[in-house]
Specification:
Helix content is about 5%, strand content about 40%. By secondary structure, it is mainly β. Strands 26, 27, 29, 35, 36, 37 and 39 form a seven-stranded antiparallel β-sheet that branches. Strands 28, 30, 31, 32, 33, 34 and 38 form a seven-stranded mixed β-sheet that branches. Strands 9, 10, 11, 12, 13 and 14 form a six-stranded antiparallel β-sheet that branches.
Length: about 600
């Protein structure tokens, strides 16, 4: 234990040296670049970011790598690098120099997505896709230049790269995104890589004894003839019982595996729970009726996220998920701001008791940002047509938890079976302003004083045959009066027995230009990007509970916290980074 404490102190000391700035550190002044900038979501100080890459916990420090364009706020200017930040708590982050830049023949046209793996003895290794001098995608390895550096500030790319050359049966631009590696019971390392083989979207498995020489398995881990190109594969184990996370190499009778794929055709992430056999490197899905087309699998998030990546957090024994949420206004807006793209707030993942779906929840560290708290009296009745304002906090930067009790389901509307295939369209047809029987009820967030701008997060209950279906929506159609903003409805069904429980929980994180919502204890998640014009002109946002059903609902619980502003890669005019080791500053909202 003493050794662990000493190691932690050493990491703390090195990070403090990196961040020490005395009185010369200043935050960036208010400007167009701060318009819509988040307060506690991960984003670099400027420029473009997209896929999360290689998150890991190593020697007392969290590392986060990400696709980064140091040349500007758009993806297509220059070649991509790997940004790198470190944290002691997954909330506050300090930016380091870039980990990988396109400087070698094997990555001359870009250092694209990949993963990090901790090798025996504690040495971290990065596997990533390089766009080589011939514009072909190859897989490369990188190691820390100084493994004893607690911050791992410099990385080396050996000259023997690529470690996996481009295969002959895959197009040059469709072979990418190596996963975190796992050890099989035969002692061989394995990774998953996305590739389109003879026109079939495939997740390929490669094996290695030494992490340098890799051989492809004859059969893919998964193949889909209909989905088009898939990318960013993530295969990881989950415990059948309990919320504990598992090391990526865990594989026993008490574990199941999750295969997550990102589909270019829809720009959505899908997953399936199943069984992984490391003797044959095959994956058997739990819900075979969903078929091989991963677009029919479960959605990781029914909103605006893509290219998600998970990692095992050995410090707190949990599986943590990151995901990219890109902008949904115009490229001109990106250029004016000087930045584009955020990451969702880190989420803990575990398997539901039904053995088929994942539950997702914001990591507990977000509670360190909680400041002022307000609530509603337990049992408050929200009558038909009611709109109750929650006052006393700055609601543009908040964490809201609410539980609704449904006294009766008798007035639930009949569900057309066709709607089962398109819940997003159903949310558009049955928006918050359309009165129903049981619902719509939920939250109205980021609302202007006159309600001309608002985002509604809500539930609606339908009767389907002799059962009930619970729909969850985030409706953006009135979220902004600005022109050129993408404002769709987002929606998905919540896979739970609402007739048995007669209640539904909702947690919503609000952070200026992003709204993340978790329905039914994290069974259904919806992330949305929003750009309310009233907030850009300095006006306050408002928060409400509403009910537009013909039946009243009750609020069993409502707690709303104003959140402090985390220190996330903040750089002042002098180019120095603000301190970011668990420190927070009070919201100025």
């Amino acid at each position: 234990m003493a050794g662990v404490a000493l190691a932690a102190c050493a990491v703390f000391f090195h990070l403090c040296l990196l961040l020490s700035s005395s009185s010369s550190v200043r935050l960036a002044p208010a400007s167009a670049g701060n318009r819509g900038r988040t307060a506690y979501h991960f984003q670099p100080a400027k420029n473009w970011q997209n896929d999360p890459n290689g998150p890991m916990y190593h020697n007392g420090m969290y590392h986060f790598f990400y696709q980064y364009n140091p040349h500007g706020a758009l993806w297509d200017i220059g070649n991509l690098s790997w940004g790198h930040s470190v944290s002691g708590d997954l909330v506050n982050w300090a930016a380091l120099d870039m980990a990988l830049d396109p400087t070698a023949p094997f990555d001359a046209n870009g250092c694209w997505s990949g993963s990090a793996t901790i090798l025996p003895g504690g040495l971290p290794a990065i596997l990533y896709t390089g766009i080589d001098a011939n514009n072909e995608q190859v897989q490369n390895v990188a190691f820390p230049k100084n493994p004893s550096d607690p911050l791992l500030r410099e990385w080396e790319k050996p000259a023997y790269n690529p470690v996996i050359a481009h295969p002959a049966d895959v197009p040059g631009d469709k072979f990418r995104d190596p996963s975190t590696a796992w050890l099989g019971r035969d002692g061989l390392w394995r990774i998953a890589v996305s590739g389109e083989v003879d026109g079939v979207a495939s997740t390929l498995v490669y094996r290695s004894k030494d992490f340098l020489r890799w051989e492809r398995n004859a059969a893919p881990l998964h193949a889909s003839h209909a989905a088009g190109m898939v990318e960013c594969p993530d295969l990881f184990p989950v415990a059948e019982h309990g919320r504990e996370g598992l090391d990526t190499s865990a594989n026993g009778a008490a574990e199941r595996h999750v295969l997550k794929l990102s589909v270019m055709d829809t720009l959505q992430d899908y997953y399936m729970v199943g069984r992984y056999d490391d003797a044959t490197d095959t994956f058997s899905p739990e819900e075979r009726e969903r078929g091989d087309d991963c677009r029919n699998w479960r959605r990781l998030d029914y909103g605006h996220v893509y290219a998600s990546k998970s990692f095992f957090d050995a410090h707190k024994n949990r599986r943590v998920l990151w995901a990219w949420a890109n902008e949904s206004d115009s490229q001109a807006d990106d250029v004016a701001r000087g930045w584009s793209g955020i990451q969702t707030f880190p989420r803990k993942l575990w398997l539901d008791k039904d053995g088929k779906q994942l539950l997702q929840w914001p990591i507990e560290e977000i509670e360190t940002l909680r400041r002022k708290r307000v609530g509603l009296r337990r049992g408050t009745k929200v009558e038909a047509g009611a709109l109750l304002e929650i006052v006393g906090i700055a609601s543009s930067q908040a964490d809201v938890e609410v539980v609704f009790k449904l006294p009766s389901l008798e007035k639930a509307e009949r569900l057309d079976p066709n709607w089962l295939l398109d819940p997003q369209k159903l949310c558009g047809e049955k928006g918050a302003s359309v009165q129903g029987g049981v619902g719509p009820f939920g939250l109205i967030v980021l609302a202007s004083g006159d309600l001309h701008e608002h985002t509604a997060v809500f539930f609606r209950v339908f009767k389907h045959h002799d059962k009930y279906k619970l729909l969850m929506c985030t409706d953006l159609t009135r979220s902004s009066t600005r022109a050129g903003v993408y404002k769709p409805p987002h929606g998905g069904f919540v896979d739970m027995d609402i007739e048995e429980h007669k209640s539904i929980s909702l947690r919503t994180l609000i952070d200026h230009s992003v709204v993340e919502s978790f329905g039914g204890g994290g069974r259904t998640c919806i992330t949305a990007r929003v750009y309310p014009e009233h907030a850009e002109t300095g006006n306050d946002s408002h928060l409400y509970v509403f009910n537009n059903g013909t039946d009243a609902v009750k609020v069993s619980k409502l707690e709303a916290w104003e959140l402090a502003t985390a220190t996330v890669n903040v750089v002042g005019d002098d180019g120095l980074v603000a301190p970011a080791l668990g420190a927070t500053r009070q919201s100025e909202a």
